Request: fold
Amino acid sequence: MSAKKRYQAEACVAKHTGDRTEQQDRAAVFAHPTRKGTLMAVLADGMGGHSGGAMAAEQVILKAKQNFEAFAPASESPQDLLRSIIDEAHIVIKLTRFTSEQDPHSTAVVFMMQPDRADWAHCGDSRFYHFRRGELVTRSLDHSLVEELVRKGRLDAEGALRHPNRNVLLSCLGSEREPRVDLGHASPLAGGDAFLLCSDGLWAYITEQEMGQILDTQSPRDAASTLIEMARQRARGGGDNISLAVVKLVEVNSKLRTEVARYGG
Reply:
């Protein structure tokens, strides 16, 4: 019986203002303060007037960090944690409407990795992708008008990118309606697994095949740089804010096993 493989989680967060005057996206990756091999990545695309969107997105990051640090697996499932982050951030964003003149809203993608397990949740049209050695395993489905039209067969993927109402969301944080929260998970994990969280400023310009190939052949840092550069070139001066977080599992030499988080494979 072969020895169990070990994997090191490599991560990177990157942002670009694009051709906008203000950066309203937020993204972060943080390790759990006490649980080895447990980390969280979170991304939010804020909307709602000058500074309002940035404020909304910032609330998602703050709530994710707060709830993640208090995570207790014995009394809370990963799904409960992820849902609580989105639901509570939604409430906080709604409350800020009473203390500011903006109408803040935000999308949210939250990802948590534990040894040999990954969980994620999203609301809105910021996306989550899971690739394994360059091949797409799964991606989140946008809570948007065009995604609904695609799902019903009334629009193809290429038409969705050009549709005049492509930015209309059916669910987000901060609106009057309770946010829709879609959940997913993967287990066991394997070397070559790559997880990408990104805003529409990125995915609108890059195919899934391109993403997978770049994430498979480059480090998270280099991949983030390549993806942003591609999106900027293809936006041709009309690009939105870009944000992304990459988490990749890389098999490590046995001599390094005591120095890194352990992931079964």
Remarks:
- The longest helix spans residues 78-96.
